[in-house]
Structure formats: structure tokens, C-alpha cells
Amino acid sequence: MGLFDFVAAAGKALGFGGSDEPEAEAIKKEVEALGLDVEGLDVTVEGDTVKVSGAAASQEMKEKVILAVGNVAGVAQVDENLSAKTGGDASSFHTVAKGDTLWAISSKHLGDGSKYMAIFEANRPMLSDPDKIYPGQVLRIPKA
């Protein structure tokens, strides 16, 4: 269980039916559309906080669900109660700042800019292009 902070003003707009507040069903559909494997996925919204629970296939999948939910416009916090069927090392998260590139983020966190593709792959399917990151987006940083 954990509470994760995000930048509410940044993120993917899911078209909340004219409202700026995220809608649980739209977020759930986004997670499913990304093909993220979670049994019994439950999403509820309280203001700008999204609560998500279920059983993720792995620690990696759990982290991707948290990011898929948190990187939605209007979401400031994700309160997760997700279990992971298989373990693995927890990744760290990085909030993209203006001017950041995956190369610079990789240099900072992995000690080598040329390992930027490891960060890109760690954030698939949410990222479709290594050159398309934006300020306020939160990324998974795999262990070096």
C-alpha cells in the first residue's frame, strides 16, 4: 500500500465528459487499453485522488498501473492497494522537469546516458516514443 504524488496539471486527458475531475471508469478503461495485467481492478476517485486496488501480475506491472493512473490529467495522488503475484525489485520514480531528456534522466539515475532505452522500455506501453516525454510526467526508473 502506498500514496504516490503526481502533477495534476500534467498528464493525458481522458475526456471526462466536460469535467476536469478524473472519472473512475475512464481511468479503468485506460489501464485496460494499455494491456496492463491486473485481476479484480477497482478504481475509485475522491477529488484529485484515485484509489486503485487489485492483483497485478508482477511488481513491474503494479508500478506501471500506478503510473498509468497517476499520469492522467487531474490526478494529484494515487492511493494504491495493489498486490503483486510475483516479486521483484521496486523501481524508483522520476518526475520529468522542463528540459529533461531520457538521456539526462538516465545519466542521473543509471550513471550512463546511453542506457536511456532501459528507462523507455521500463515505461512501455505508456511511452510510445523515447522523444515524447513531458514536464510533470512521472517515469519508472529500473534498477541500474
In short:
The chain is an alpha+beta fold. The chain is 26% helix and 26% strand.
The profile of the biggest β sheet is: 4 strands, mixed
Please give the order of strands in the largest beta sheet: 1-4-3-2
- Low-confidence sequence ranges: none
Order of helices and strands: EHEEHEEHHE
Q: Based on Cα principal axes, name the global outline.
A: globular
- Oligomer state equals single chain
Give the beta-strand count: 6
Broad structural category: alpha+beta
Mean pLDDT: 93
Helix proportion:
25-40%
Terminal-residue CA separation: 24 Å
What is the CA-atom radius of gyration, in angstroms?
A: 15 Å
Q: Strand content of the residues, in percent?
A: 25-35%
Number of helical regions: 4
Please tag this protein with its features.
globular; alpha+beta; 144 residues; four-stranded mixed beta sheet
